[in-house]
Amino acid sequence: MKTITPILEIDVPEPRSDEIYSERILGRQIRFKGLKKLLGAADISKAGDRNTDLAPESDMIRETARMILSSLTLQHIYDHPLTDDNGLVDTVVRTGYDIDHTVFNSISSMTLGDMKDHLLRSDGQEIKRIGRGIIPAIAAGLAKLMDAHDLIFIPRKIFTPTKARTLIGVPGSLSFRIQPNHPKDNLDAISLMVYTNLALGMGDCLIGVNPSEGSIDTITSVITHIDKLRRETGVPTQICVLGHVKNQLAALKLGAPVEILFQSFAGTERTLTEEFDVTVSYMDQAYATMIEKGPLRNVAQQFMYLETGQGSEMTYRKHNGIDMTTCEALCYGLCRRYDPFMVNSATGFIGPETHLNDFELMISNLQDNFMGKLLGLPMGVSPSYTLHADTHIEGQQMTTHLATAAGANFFMDVYLGTDRMLAHFVNSGHDDQTLREVHSRIPAPEFLEWAKEKGIFEQSPDGLVTRGSQWGNPQLFCKSDAEFQQLRESLPSAPGFENAGPRPVNKVQRTLLLNQSIGREAVHSHLREDELEGIDFRVLTTMAQCREDHLRRSELGTMLTAESMESLSPENKDIQVVMTDGLSAEAIHHNIHDTLTVLEDGLMSRNYSMGRHVLVHYGRVKLTEHIGDALRCQLVIMLIGERPGGDALSSRSMSAYLVYRLNDAEVQKQAIEYSGNKGIRYEYTLISNIYTGGLPALEAGSVIAEKAVQIITHKAAGNRLEEILKR
Known about the structure:
The protein is α/β, with parallel strands linked by helices. Among the domains are: 7-155, Orthogonal Bundle (Annexin V, domain 1); 529-725, Ethanolamine ammonia-lyase light chain (EutC) (Rossmann fold, 3-Layer(aba) Sandwich), CATH 3.40.50.11240. 43% of the residues lie in helices and 14% in strands. The chain contains 30 helices and 24 strands. The chain has a 6-stranded mixed beta sheet, with helices on both faces. Strands 7-6-5-12 form a 4-stranded parallel beta sheet, with helices on one face. Strands 8-9-10-11 form a 4-stranded parallel beta sheet. Helix 7 crosses helix 9 (136-145), helix 11 runs parallel beside helix 12 (216-233) and helix 12 (216-233) packs across helix 13.
């Protein structure tokens, strides 16, 4: 196993003042102040960078920035570490400097342009050698000099195999992580989706579930169940539940089979700690725990699954003035620290505030794959589109073909490409098989042998792998037709299991895309105040003045207008309910009356004081902190429309964010000690998928009330509350 270098033993040059980079073009002097500005201007224009004034103003500005960047030596970039807003090197940047200095010294005098040419001329072994000696900012700079051909040609030469029960990333292979998510964490539905994807020949990389409810109990229940499925089917793969790392480790301590440890990463320490609730030192401890206690410690060579994706730092405005591509490279420097089994870029998942259209999605995913593979990672990508962005199934599919050509190790897939729990769209098992057949790829060797025994694949004497007689037949794993029918009833929204070659049949495709069109309509729906009769509320307004502002500039929905702020004064109530459209006003209209009726009864029966309800148009979750500060309540409960998912009903899905204000000095001290975030002021608990196909509204009212009682009683929310409840 890899030895972790103590963070303070990693040498980083002292930060320097910003240099002025300039070039004269036809009498016009073009200037960039500081390396951050230069790196941002050298990239393709993307929504997240435009929203933070880091994108180039024109093609000429971009190409000028690229010319200047090409002329800088690797030593120059190394000598100018990217700092935070206080001019300091944070822990995420520091980890990226843990490199092979012998390699770096051999290439440090090369310019970025020279290095690009060298990579294009070199074989995979030389590229891997170079990757060990470069910091993430250099990888980002190189990515910005590449066109699409470059971004495909170079990484396809790099192979970084990793081994758990299966060996992934070997030449000629293409692996897939299946993600059988369900909005109720229904175990029968999870079983059916696992069976379906296994029958399609997928899952050689991982079976990994994102739980709708991220408590330690749910994580334990779900991972125990998928471990049972793995054992019963005999499939050689590994399992994971994509809950928060703290709750996964708590489940491991209780005996749950946490074989692969998951965590999402960000490219700045502020985002990592304040939003993702982990620190580098905590992840060091987590890695050490898996070495000592992980179920695969005597089997796997790697056992960490790390997920990234361009834009999270921009969404939270905690990017330290660094552009999205470079922040993503910084993520990879942190990932490299833990010798992971797999790294997945989920670029596109956030939406139009980071990636507005299909072109931005394509370029960013190619950049991610290039940077990750160059830095030595077992890189997979998960091109994702959402219904509130101008991204589509065709753009997502084209991106997967480009990334396959570029040598991505794996992709993620969900049943028919539709994640009803997380409300985004990625590969389906049909897409996966199509990619394998078009690009002549096969599964991991151990998985292929199992799939041949099951009749899922056949292999000719000359090595050609084709679909077998049982390909696409989920009943293969059921003991009877009755068992399959029982599982089928647990997933009533499933449009069918019929196939046409490696693709779903036309009627299934038509149903899927019709449902998506309904979801896109819901994104553009509006709150209708006259239909909220019987609810006593006051109306506040955010800085987002129209739907386009709301979708493309998320920060505007987190701030109240001056007039609204002036209308608020301290009320010192226990609880304040806030209702807002979020990404589906229809979710509010279809759930709010039933949810509020039960929620109000549950809270008032316990004698909690409540402020008059607030209704906000174009609101985002972080708005709760402004309202909480102004009203000085203990707890803000925001009921907000989720972004629409994959079936017609899910366009009506609502979430409840319970946002606890740390207004007690001793409680805040405990929160700081737990999170490592010295500036923490609020803790969050989420209850999602409130609609008739998930958690019904009446039941949700009771669940929210009970969770509110727990939060106020224990003076904690989020992961800290879950740990307290398990004591």
